[in-house]
Amino acid sequence: MNGFFSIAIDGPSGAGKSSLARKLAEAFRFIYVDTGAIYRTVGLAAYRAGIDRKDEQAVKSLLPKIKIELGYNEAGEQRMYLDGEDVSAEIRRPEISICASDVSSLPAVRAYLLEMQRELARRNNVIMDGRDIGTVVLPGAELKIFLTADSRARAQRRLLELKAKGIEADFEDVLQDIEYRDRQDSSRAAAPLRAAEDALVVDTSEIDFEQSFRLLAELVVTRLAPERDGDI
Ligand code: DC
Questions:
Q1: Fewer beta carbons below 10 Å: N end or C end of the chain?
Q2: Which domain holds residue 111?
Q3: Domain containing 78 — which CATH number?
Q4: Looking at the whole model, is its pTM more than 0.85?
């Protein structure tokens, strides 16, 4: 341990990781790091460059030519910058989700982003969400949660999230995207999506956001209580 606490939240897309991690980070005054947004930014760069997102050499040679930065605005929200441009909204487009999943299966991309993620945890108390945070990025995290839910429940939530952002989408399309990404993210050779052996598995299919939050907050308090006053 380096004096800071790390909480890793992994799981498939749409399980509620980002909304829960954001609220937990606020409650416990940790910084929230959405690592999917970093992969999405690489996916967007590959999309804009018009290259084959599964061609490791093509994507690898793009990496040194782009600048990816992560920052926080005054409201404490994470923003992603690609070559200085704020792309935080654009990376949420459904076609960029697929690009992100494609580039994330390339070992060169994962290696390139590893240090950036670890550096954030060396300098801050973090709640980091992703697919391989507990297994690869922060194997020494003080608390590891693997958050999951069945794919239809996740598609329904993702649909509502997109709607709230003014993006119209069709349920079957969203479900297909989620199932495509589940298959690809879980079956890839490089850092596949899986629960770390010491992760606590939480299934949110049957519980709502508030119940999920209370459950996770209790886990955080229990794990960190000896060191912090875990008041929320
Ligand atoms: O969490 P998200 O849906 O924004 O992630 C976008 C894609 O990035 C997802 O399909 C898998 C990939 N990803 C990853 O491989 N490793 C991470 N730590 C985070 C995301």
A1: N
A2: 6-224
A3: 3.40.50.300
A4: yes
